[in-house]
Automatic annotation (TrEMBL):
Residues 76-306 form the Alpha/beta hydrolase fold-3 domain. It comes from Urochloa decumbens. Keywords: Hydrolase. Pfam families: Abhydrolase_3. Belongs to the 'GDXG' lipolytic enzyme family. One of its GO terms (molecular function) is hydrolase activity. The keyword Hydrolase applies. InterPro entries: AB_hydrolase_3, AB_hydrolase_fold, Carboxylest/Gibb_receptor, Lipase_GDXG_HIS_AS. The keyword rRNA-binding does not apply. This is Alpha/beta hydrolase fold-3 domain-containing protein.
């Protein structure tokens, strides 16, 4: 048989890999052009971060900001979901969601287009995410990113505030945001900048010991182990801290390099107990030096419901976006960036979550 047509692994409805190594993605391949969103006034554009690896991003800025240099806004680095293997920073679902989120949160946003498995097994996504975060911080702060001169990106340089840097993601993108924050606790960012906040939206975490919400799905562990082995090329087990932070010793939470954390879960999501336990473990660790860990729950909603296309009002989605915006607005970070003129200290207020 032709190895280019003989199936090696069938993971429908996500993708099929053939014996030749060719991957046919069954979803998440369409691309929506950047531009100004009529509904929100948010403007976006696409940029290349590393031509050698293909690392790219879609940048977003809220309406009424461009051309007004005095406006400094939080910097949000966002990682899309898609089981580490499908979708991109340019997909329609994430484009719609981020236009709404950027408008509500008033943040300059970098949506990262990282390399996908299985062609680039995990930890390639983590490496790309870390490189993108360093790029965003360096471009905002005007500092060397470690491999050459500071990147020149006017949206970040003119409107980003390095005292308010956030990382966020949905599903496996939430997993990536967590792992980036863990790396940030061990390795420096340009200018000594710190992550102010981390937002995990229905994060993808699993483990060999099933939690109550995972028991409702037959063969839950078998499927999780099969998928994790596929996207990591068998390098890591299902209890590796990359995918199961609950397996970490309490002392290891000290490496989580953010001051504040927010985890959102959905009442009908089988991984909801993982998100709840994550917040509990973080609060109880005694090792994390952060100030606040917040749990936000949508009862009656499914996994990443906020990415769905809806006609008219969608209250659950609007409420969740408002909660994230409130969490980000309550920041009172103190980041260090030498003489970087974008540093400022903002007043704090309690997030209503």
């Amino acid at each position: 048989m032709d190895p280019d047509t003989e199936v090696d692994v069938d993971l429908s409805p996500y993708l099929i890999r053939y014996k030749s190594g060719r991957v046919h993605r069954l979803m998440g391949t369409s691309r929506v052009a950047a531009g100004t969103d009529a509904a929100t006034g948010v403007t976006s554009k696409d940029v290349s971060l590393d031509a050698a690896t293909g690392l790219a991003a879609r940048l977003y800025v809220p309406g009424g900001v461009l051309g007004t240099p005095a406006i400094r806004l939080p910097v949000l680095v966002y990682f899309h979901g898609g089981a580490f293997s499908v979708h991109s920073a340019f997909s329609g679902a994430h484009f719609r969601f981020l236009n709404a989120l950027v408008s509500a949160a008033r943040a300059v946003t970098v949506s990262v287009d990282f390399r996908l498995a299985p062609e680039h097994p995990v930890p390639a996504a983590y490496d790309d995410a870390w490189a993108a975060l360093r790029w965003a911080v360096a471009a905002t702060c005007g500092r060397d990113a470690g491999s050459g001169p500071a990147p020149q990106e006017p949206w970040l340089a003119e409107h980003g505030d390095v005292a308010r840097v956030f990382v966020a993601g949905d599903s496996t993108g939430g997993n990536i945001a967590h792992n980036v924050a863990m790396r940030a606790g061990r390795l420096p960012l340009p200018g000594g900048v710190r992550i102010e906040g981390m937002v995990l939206l229905h994060p993808y975490f699993r483990g060999k010991e099933l939690l109550p919400s995972e028991l409702t799905e037959p063969r839950s562990l078998e499927r999780a182990e099969r998928w994790w082995a596929f996207v990591t090329a068998g390098r890591y087990g299902i209890d590796h801290p990359f995918v199961n932070p609950l397996a970490m010793a309490a002392a290891e939470w000290a490496a989580l390099g953010c001051r504040r954390a927010m985890v959102a879960v959905a009442g009908l999501d089988k991984m909801r107990d993982r998100g709840r336990r994550y917040v509990e473990a973080l609060r109880a660790s005694g090792a994390w030096a952060g100030d606040e860990a917040v749990l936000y729950e949508d009862h009656g909603e499914r996994h990443v419901f906020f990415l769905r296309k809806s006609e008219g009002s969608d209250k659950a989605k609007e409420d969740m976006i408002a909660a994230v915006a409130s969490f980000m607005a309550s920041s009172s970070a103190e980041a260090r960036c030498g003489p970087c003129p974008s540093v400022r200290f903002s007043g704090s207020s309690d997030a209503k979550l």
